[in-house]
Amino acid sequence: MKLQLLGTGGYHPSEERHTACYFLPDVGVVLDAGTGFFRVAPRLKTKELQIFLSHAHLDHVVGLTYFQPAFKLGLVERVRVYAQAAVVEAVRSYLFENPIFSGRCRHEFVVLEEGRPVEIPSGGQVTFQPLVNHTGGSTAYRIDWPGFSLAYVTDTTVDGSYTQFVRGVDLLLHECTFMNELKEMAEEAKHSYAQSVGELAKEAQVGRLILCHLDPWLNDYQQKILEQVQAVFEPVELARDLKEVEFNIKA
Q: What is the architecture, at CATH level 2, of domain 2-246?
């Protein structure tokens, strides 16, 4: 199984990174649909796609409007978009309205139900947890297969509310927007800083940590952010666009 990091930045795309998009092509699952979502269509292996949105900010959803050619060319037959009710309402009411988008929305929207996991191919199960420490809120996701698990947490300040949710995952994708020196800015912007992310990963005993949602305005400080996390937790690495992570699940 492969996880493709198609958009690893936040706020806006840059020369180095597009915004949030993480793709599991073998099972047709996408975590967030930022500007990096344009890279999904040529990598499709399935006729159905399941997209899980963390929240409705543009750097996480604008890519949904890029997918019209994939439908018209027959590359995909069905796309289901999962999110909390407020996110579904915002995307359907605004992103695909004619003054903003000239095409026809072909996506199916599904509201997540508390306590009800979403089944994905190859025996995977997606669970979620609402996050309150971001403007408008956000949603953390966890995918468990027999023999492997991963979690995706973005657009939040670190707190103890979701430690148990990500505990013991083999791979944690977690936003790390700021270095330690900008802790106050992180708290004001409702994002995470290096030390807090490292401490969370250590407390939750995750197997591997990949730092994502990297701020394009702090590109020159990414190595410093990595080193500050490493001072608390290893193994950890910076997410990079087009990187592939391979892992095995049990049949």
A: 4-Layer Sandwich (3.60)
